[in-house]
Amino acid sequence: MNTALIGGLLGGLAAAGVVMAVLASPPMRRPTLADRIAPYLADTANESQLLARPGRGTAGALARLTAPLLRDAVRMIDRLVGGQASVRRRLDALGSPITVEQFRTDQVLWGALATAGGLGVGLLAVLFGQTNPLALLLLIGGCGIGGVLARDWWLSQAVSKRNAAILSEFPVVAEMLALAVTAGEGPIGAIERVSRLARGHLVGLLGGILADTRSGTPFLVALTTLRDRTQLEPLSRFLDGMAVAIERGTPLADVLRAQAADVRALGKRELLESGGKKEIAMMVPVKFGP
């Protein structure tokens, strides 16, 4: 164990902490435009900060102290990673209530936790005789970057699972809507009946259309809004077909049945493509197995 190396690492961490604390202090922080004009735009008198109710306990004080650093880290990650439109589109597809800023905050927290884990592994490596500072720095930095990217990957996986569940529910829901329309229900009544009888992600999206319609949004506008928000091409064609059928007066039941048949055919094609791609892998246990 190299005592000088451990002392150097701890001293470097302490120095970095002091520098970050000094740069984040109010005299060193550059006020934003919103902070400068906020006192002149307020329509009520600002209360004294002495009368403001402070956060309870150490957690509230720690949150207030680390909030500026967290905001700076969120802005830095947003500049480096970018892709706000992609994140917002995936969050909308997932139906998540969090914003892009909250997602970036989650990425910062994941990166901080991964960096702390990498630092712990690095200290263990130093204790067991590893004295290469470059390797330790690469390990810690790689863990931090991996934590940030892991949060983005987790969101993509959640969206993929939700889309797969919607596609699996799609044919059955489309057939139920077609049966309800054939029995004499209108489009809104058919969606309402299916929402009462079925459960699932697609039914939840249809329930959102009902909620928008009851709040005053025209039915066609609610359909097109969901069509523009979804990432699934079959669902987008389905909603577009419903909107066109309602607008032009074409038989809606036939459109719904045709869309359900298209989704079933798409599922069969994807299954055949998946089997073709894994054909060689499936031959390995047959060829080399006992």
UniProtKB/TrEMBL annotation:
<feature type="transmembrane region" description="Helical">
    <location>
        <begin position="108"/>
        <end position="128"/>
    </location>
</feature>
<keyword id="KW-1133">Transmembrane helix</keyword>
<dbReference type="InterPro" id="IPR018076">
    <property type="entry name" value="T2SS_GspF_dom"/>
</dbReference>
<feature type="domain" description="Type II secretion system protein GspF">
    <location>
        <begin position="175"/>
        <end position="285"/>
    </location>
</feature>
<keyword id="KW-1003">Cell membrane</keyword>
<protein>
    <submittedName>
        <fullName>Tight adherence protein C</fullName>
    </submittedName>
</protein>
<dbReference type="GO" id="GO:0005886">
    <property type="term" value="C:plasma membrane"/>
</dbReference>
<keyword id="KW-0472">Membrane</keyword>
<keyword id="KW-0812">Transmembrane</keyword>
<dbReference type="Pfam" id="PF00482">
    <property type="entry name" value="T2SSF"/>
</dbReference>
<feature type="transmembrane region" description="Helical">
    <location>
        <begin position="6"/>
        <end position="24"/>
    </location>
</feature>
<feature type="transmembrane region" description="Helical">
    <location>
        <begin position="134"/>
        <end position="154"/>
    </location>
</feature>
